[in-house]
Write a structure and sequence with these properties.
four-stranded antiparallel β-sheet, 400 residues, 17% strand, alpha/beta, TIM Barrel, 13 strands, 14 helices
C-alpha cells in the first residue's frame, strides 16, 4: 500500500455515554475528548526482548498515554528483515495488542548495512522501512533502498548517524561531557547523514522521513530541503524540546540516542516545531530493564520511556505557556503522522481532564520500562479513558 498519499482525516467519534459512565466519567465540561494519538517511533521489544517490554505491556502503556496507533521499530530478535520474521511479530500483535500496532521492516539484513533486505517481499506487511538504531553507512546501499522503496510506494525512515564520527561517545559532545570526563557524540554525526540522505531522496524521488532529530543543523538542513521540494518529513521527541545537556545527571535515565544536545539546539527544535519544519512528535519509547539503566551515563543502555507522559508534558510546558497552540499539538501528535504514513483515524479517542495536576512517578507507569528523566515533574492533564475502534483500550478505573 502506498502510505504517502493518505486522504484528509477528520475526527468525528461516536461517543458511547454508557462507556463514559462506566469509566467514572460524567458528562462534565472538565473533560476534553481528543483524537487518538499516533506515534511513528516506538520499541515494544517483542519478539526477542520481552523482559524489557511486550506488545501487551507496550500497547497498554500507549493507550494510557492516549495513543491508539503506534509504529514499532525492527530491532528485535529476530530482526524484522524478512516476511517470515515480520509474521512472527504480527502474530503477537494480533493476539495481544489493545491498539493499532504497525511494524517497520528493516532496510538491510540484520540491520547490518551489508545487504539489502527483501523490501518487495515485505512491503505489504510493514508501515515503512527503517534500520532504526543504525545509520545506513553506504551511499550506494541507501540509494538502492530509496529506489526500491520509491517503486513500492513506501517511505524510507532513517536513524541518521555516521559511525566514523561517533568515537565511542554516549552523551552530547558539549560542556557537560568536557567538565565530567565523558566521551561525546558530535552533532555532525547526525546532520551529516541527513544531508547525504536528502541529496539521495532528491535524486531518487523517494519519500523520506527522519527519526528523532536533535540538532540545530538538522532543523536548518531539513527546512531548506523542504523549500527546494524534497519529499521529506521529520520528527523530534518531547525530551529534546524540554531538556538539554546542561540538565544532565550521572544517571542512566538521562541517556538516549541521539543524546540531549545544547540549549541552542533545543531552541532551534522549538523554532522548528513552531514554524512547521518538524512534522511529528514521536516518543522513541525505548524501555529497558532496571538493571540495564542502573549503570550510569557511560554504561547504561541507550533509551528512555515516554509514551505515557508525552502529551501531559508538551501540553503543560509548550501549550499552556503559549509556545504552540493546542491545534498545533494535535497536528504533531495525530494528523501529520497519520497523513504521512497512511494510518486511518477511526473511532479512536481519549478522554482527559486537562485541569488535573499530577506528578510523574515511575511507579504509575504501565510500561515495563521505568527510566524517565521527567520523574518528579508536575504536569497538567490526566487521561481517564482511551477508546480504539470503539473498544476500551485503557480505563483508569481498571488499569492502574
Amino acid at each position: 500500500m502506498d502510505r504517502t498519499g493518505a486522504t484528509e482525516l477528520t475526527f468525528s467519534p461516536t461517543i458511547d455515554t454508557k462507556v463514559l459512565r462506566d469509566a467514572g466519567i460524567g458528562l462534565s465540561s472538565t473533560y476534553t475528548i481528543l483524537p487518538g494519538f499516533c506515534d511513528v517511533h516506538v520499541h515494544f521489544r517483542e519478539p526477542g526482548f520481552s523482559y524489557k517490554e511486550t506488545i501487551a505491556t507496550g500497547s497498554k502503556a500507549a493507550a494510557h498515554g492516549g495513543y491508539t496507533a503506534v509504529c514499532t521499530m525492527p530491532n528485535l530478535a529476530p530482526v524484522s528483515d524478512s516476511k517470515d520474521h515480520l509474521k512472527m511479530q504480527q502474530d503477537i500483535i494480533d493476539r495481544d495488542a489493545c491498539i493499532h500496532v504497525y511494524p517497520y521492516a528493516a532496510i538491510t539484513v540484520g540491520q547490518k548495512g551489508e545487504m539489502l533486505a527483501d523490501l518487495a517481499g515485505m512491503a505489504g506487511d510493514c508501515i515503512s522501512f527503517s534500520d532504526d538504531g543504525h545509520g545506513v553507512q553506504s551511499d550506494g546501499m541507501m540509494r538502492e533502498a530509496m529506489m526500491t522503496a520509491k517503486s513500492l510506494g513506501k517511505i524510507i525512515t532513517a536513524h541518521c548517524e555516521v559511525n566514523s564520527l561517533l568515537n565511542g561517545g554516549y552523551i552530547h559532545d558539549g560542556r557537560y561531557a568536557a567538565e565530567h570526563g565523558h566521551r561525546g557524540i558530535c552533532s555532525e554525526s547526525e546532520w551529516r547523514q541527513i544531508e547525504r540522505d536528502l541529496r539521495l531522496a532528491d535524486e531518487t524521488g523517494c519519500a523520506y522521513h527522519v527519526c528523532h532529530i536533535s540538532t540545530k543543523e538538522s532543523v536548518s538542513i531539513i527546512r531548506d530541503a523542504k523549500k527546494s521540494g524534497v519529499d521529506v518529513t521529520c520528527e523530534t521527541a518531547p525530551h529534546y524540546l524540554l531538556l538539554d545537556d546542561s540538565m544532565l545527571k550521572e544517571d542512566g535515565k538521562w541517556k538516549m540516542n541521539p543524546p540531549l544536545r545544547d540549549a541552542s539546539d533545543r531552541d532551534a527544535l522549538l523554532e522548528g516545531i513552531v514554524d512547521g519544519t518538524i512534522d511529528c512528535l514521536a516518543t522513541d519509547h525505548a524501555p529497558h530493564s532496571a538493571e540495564e539503566k542502573s549503570r550510569g551515563l557511560e554504561k547504561s543502555a541507550f533509551g528512555i520511556v515516554g509514551i505515557e507522559t508525552a502529551f501531559p508534558l508538551v501540553y503543560t510546558y509548550l501549550v499552556m505557556p503559549g509556545i504552540i497552540t493546542m491545534d498545533r499539538l494535535e497536528q504533531l501528535l495525530v494528523y501529520n503522522p497519520r497523513r504521512r504514513f497512511g494510518i486511518p483515524l477511526g473511532n479512536d479517542y481519549s478522554v482527559w481532564d486537562l485541569t488535573e495536576e499530577w506528578t510523574i512517578e515511575k511507579e504509575e507507569l504501565l510500561s515495563k520500562g521505568k527510566a524517565t528523566p521527567f520523574e518528579g515533574w508536575r504536569v497538567m492533564g490526566r487521561n481517564y479513558l482511551t477508546v480504539c475502534d470503539g473498544k476500551i483500550a485503557y480505563n483508569s478505573m481498571l488499569d492502574q
